[in-house]
């Protein structure tokens, strides 16, 4: 009887883990299409170079590493400013920081600096990261590729 229970628990735990990874990937996928662009001056109409698998993997790794830091920074800023709405913060637009109190501004600047380091340490330039982010807005195939890569990377944490 005990033997029957163990495989069931493993199977149940595997399904639960798959659901958690699915929702984490879904959250990250929605994040990439709307929240983090280092520069709003990137030209969405510019000719986009074809992405290779390395670009897709690097971009996905960046997302997995940035998201926890983004959430932490967001929570700190929210705690500092209270009930006020958090303005859209664009890392290389200093005016987007102006309405933040100095302590919250420091959190945002630290987050932006750390994000840039993460992007660059994963083999992408900020321009490449922004370009991929912009391409995702209108490219369902690319969204699917990034989504599948996120799931694959989360299943094998050592690949991150």
TrEMBL record:
Residues 1-44 form the signal peptide. InterPro entries: DUF4168 (IPR025433). This is DUF4168 domain-containing protein. It comes from Fischerella muscicola CCMEE 5323. Keywords: Signal. Residues 53-146 form the DUF4168 domain. It comes from the Bacteria.
């Amino acid at each position: 009887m005990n033997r029957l229970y163990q495989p069931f628990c493993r199977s149940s735990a595997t399904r639960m883990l798959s659901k958690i990874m699915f929702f984490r990937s879904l959250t990250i996928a929605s994040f990439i299409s709307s929240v983090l662009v280092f520069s709003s001056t990137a030209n969405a109409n510019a000719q986009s170079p074809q992405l290779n698998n390395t670009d897709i993997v690097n971009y996905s790794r960046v997302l997995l590493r940035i998201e926890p830091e983004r959430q932490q920074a967001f929570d700190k800023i929210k705690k500092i400013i209270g009930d006020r709405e958090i303005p859209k913060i664009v890392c290389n637009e200093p005016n987007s920081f102006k309405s933040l109190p100095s302590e919250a501004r420091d959190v945002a600047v630290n987050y932006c600096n750390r994000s840039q380091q993460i992007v660059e340490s994963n083999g992408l330039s900020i321009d490449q990261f922004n370009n991929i982010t912009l391409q995702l807005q209108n490219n369902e195939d690319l969204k699917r590729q990034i989504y599948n890569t996120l799931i694959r990377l989360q299943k094998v944490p050592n690949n991150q």
